[in-house]
From TrEMBL:
HAMAP family: UPF0301 (MF_00758)
InterPro entries: AlgH-like
Gene3D superfamilies: VC0467-like
Protein name, UniProt field: UPF0301 protein PYV00_11905
Organism: Novosphingobium album (ex Liu et al. 2023)
Family: Belongs to the UPF0301 (AlgH) family.
SUPFAM superfamilies in the record: VC0467-like
């Protein structure tokens, strides 16, 4: 990857059309931020909800929160990334999680990665990204730090054999 901020990154591609693309990083923990603290900052009583890591979703709008979640919950603003997951960015989903009627599986991230029209396609032509199949078990059941390796292995690729540079023939 040409941008070191994305070295060994794993993102869920949530939107990709003629206007550009939006992805949420799911492979790096945002240091110094925890889920219960985030709830308290938003004046939501965390009650008995378990604490969780908050992920580094990407460099764009790093203070904006997103919840990547299973499709067993949907709110007014939920973007369906079917069949893999949903993406929500409202207080409604946070309250649902705290109250015990939110999605079964969820991750919370701050920030996102965004690309303008054609930008992601250009980066892929220069081998900046690999588009792996989205897998719920990697998204929701694999430890954050293990998602990069797990994504490659699920594609049948040993990441230890990857070259750090590409050439042209």
């Amino acid at each position: 990857m040409f941008d070191p901020r994305f070295a060994h990154s794993v993102s869920v591609m949530c939107m990709h059309d003629k206007n550009g693309a939006l992805g949420i990083g799911i492979g790096q923990v945002r240091k110094g931020v925890r889920f219960r603290e985030l709830l308290e900052e938003l004046d939501i009583d965390p009650g008995d909800v378990p604490d969780r890591d908050v992920l580094h979703g990407g460099p764009v709008e790093p203070g904006r929160g997103f919840v990547v979640h299973s499709l067993d919950w949907s709110g007014a603003d939920t973007l369906r990334v079917a069949p893999l997951c949903g993406l929500s960015a409202s207080l409604e989903i946070l309250r649902a999680i705290v109250e015990g009627h939110g999605p079964r599986h969820w991750l919370i991230a701050l920030g996102y990665a965004g690309w303008g029209p054609g930008q992601l396609e250009g980066e892929m032509r220069r081998h900046g990204w690999y588009a792996a199949q989205g897998r719920a078990e990697i998204l929701f059941e694999t430890a954050t730090e293990a998602r990069w390796i797990a994504s490659w292995r699920a594609e049948g690729i040993d990441p230890a054999l990857l070259a750090s540079e590409t050439g042209r023939a």
